[in-house]
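Entry type: protein chain
Record version: 2
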Amino acid sequence: MRRSDREITDFDEIVEIIKKCDVCRLALHDEEYPYILPLNFGMRIEDGKIVLYFHGANEGKKYALIEKNNKASFEMDCGHRLVMDDEKMSCTMEYESIIGQGIIEKVSDEQKYDALMVLMRQYHQEDFPFNQNIMPQTTVLKLTVNSYTAKHRKTGK
């Protein structure tokens, strides 16, 4: 990381940043260019590792790409605030962000309900009663994070 003064290494602080985010951008391997898509997500800590869950319809390009190569990258950010400095005639942006890589796989039918509840908790709807009849038409993905970096910029103004 070029700006080590902005790096966040504390695991608990990184988890708190993830809790504040509402979109995770997932990047998958495609032919000539990476394939990136914004997704709602949920997070859980399993055996000291960050695990991200995503959901979608049972069809789509992302599933074909995952079958070819299940290595994925992700990015999420939050806490954006434009900071103006009239005296210096400049501006900057405050933020918190995390990027990382991991292995992505489909969740089994037996684990779907639990994974969907993890997704709901991300959006503060832990006890949301959803229609379980749609679960057969829903694919849930699990990304086990192997590596990550996090950083922030806070001006204090």
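Comment: The chain has a mean pLDDT of 89.
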